[in-house]
Each structure stands twice: as structure tokens, then as C-alpha cells.
Amino acid sequence: MSATVSEAVAPTRTFEPTAYHVKEGDGGVALEVKNFDLWYGRSQALYDITMAFQKGLVTALIGPSGCGKSTLLRCLNRMNDLIDELRIEGEITVDGGNIYGSGVDVIALRKRMGMVFQKPNPFAMSIYDNVVYPLRVDGVSSRAVLDETCERALRSAALWNEAKDRLKESALGLSGGQQQRLCIARAVAADPEVLLMDEPCSALDPIATAKIEELIDELKGYYSIVIVTHNMQQAARVSQNTAFMYLGRLIEYGDTDTMFTRPKVSRTQDYITGRFG
Question: What are the residue ranges spanned by the domains of the chain?
């Protein structure tokens, strides 16, 4: 899947150069985006995105609605592939290999990239069956393995104590916050390398949001986490690196403390201080 600039309207370079001051993780780079452009038909949604996501850290993607942050997130595991007339240019690499290269096993790629959506989406089955679903899809039938994975994943999602006596009950009976933690447990059960979270708290109340944020803090280090959030306070609380996007462009990318206290680009400062967005 590819596109050339000549096939669409070339982007205008009217913004200040992107500023980088990224906090390095101990484990190196989990994902790298290189000169990445994306079009929906003739409409360009992403412009020349270049950034590296650090292993074991939480990276927040912030910006106003329609800026491209969810589009970029869904490119990381190729969830945009089924959209009609989608075209891309550039690369996204994992372990040095381009995930948009020929012969890439997209299903295997998505197993490496756990996904948590904006609204909780538990399956209409038991709590237990929700958690172990990724293993059963892979053909795992050992009850011992399934039981161990279920407990491990629910503990990882800080849900074991609340759910251990309800494993045979429908997941739809859980509260909204519990359902979102169950979805995180289901993603963790597949043993991914990266967790992608698309505004995972936007449908939750403050108490449930606080639990999800605590969980993200506990999971960092074990997973590389990329979270899209419209809440700048949340980005400041949970992330080590933050990327500010505007109109499909990466304006500034750096360690979160610096981004929120000493941004290098005036447009970032304007957004953080509420002058627009």
C-alpha cells in the first residue's frame, strides 16, 4: 500500500519545525514512524510524521479533535487498512521492519499491538471467556494455561479481586470502569509488546478514570503504551513523553514535563494554555 505526493495535494509547510526533546527509555525504540503521510482518497490526514516511541514508556498523543492522533494510533497496528481509498507513504517500523512492507502478516502484527478502544467493548460472554479469548483463537485448549493466563491478566488489570468470584458471570454485568479494565486484561492476555489506547477514559467517571490511570502507571515498563487523550491533565499525569498534533502534523514531541512547562514551539504553548482547541 503506497501513495506518492504527486497523487494528492502536496502539504503546505506553514508551521514551525517540529521540536524534539524526547525522554529516552532504557529499552530503546519500540516503534518508529518515518516520514509518514496518509490520505483518505484525495484528502490528506497525516503530513510527514516522524517520531520514535520508546520501549517501556507511556507516550501521550494530544491535540484538538480532528488533528490526526487517533488516525496515527490506528496506523500503528494497521487498523485503518479496511478504509476505502486509504493511501500511505513512508514507513512505520518494528524491530527495523516496515509494517507496511510486502508480505507482512497483519494478524501477527496486531497480536503484538494490544488495542483498547474509547468505549469498553466486552464480548457477550463470561468474564473468564473474555479474558482467555485471544488464547482460544490461537488454539490454546489447556485448562491450566487458560486459568493461569486469566488470573495473571486480571491481576495485571487490577481486576482480579473484584472478579475472581464472578468469572462465570457475564462480562456485561460489570460496571463501565470494570469493563474497560477487563478489555485491558483481554489485551494483556495476548502478551503484546505494545498497548494502544484510544481515549480509554473518555466514557468513564472520575473514580473509574483514576483507576485506569493507576493501572497505566503500573503497566508501564512491562509494555510500551501509546495513549490518545483529549485531556491534557491526564497526559501530564500518566505519560513520560507527549506528542502534540495539529491538523495532521506533528508540531512538538518531547518528554512530558518539558512539554507542559517549557514547550519549544509557540503553537504548543498556545494549545496547552487554552488559547485554542
Answer: 15-118+194-272
pLDDT of residue 21: 56
Residue 22, pLDDT score: 57
Nearest C-alpha neighbor of 37 from the set 70, 84, 75, 83: 75
Q: What is the DSSP letter of 220?
A: B
At residue 28, the 3 state secondary structure works out as: coil
Q: What is the pLDDT of residue 6?
A: 29
Instruction: Quote the cell numbers at residue 36.
Output: 509518514
Helix then strand then coil, in percent of the chain rounded to 5, is 35, 25, 40
**What is the maximum span of the chain, computed from C-alpha positions, in angstroms?**
60
Fold of the CATH domain 15-118+194-272: Rossmann fold (3.40.50)
Residue numbers of the chain with a pLDDT score lower than 70:
1-27, 277
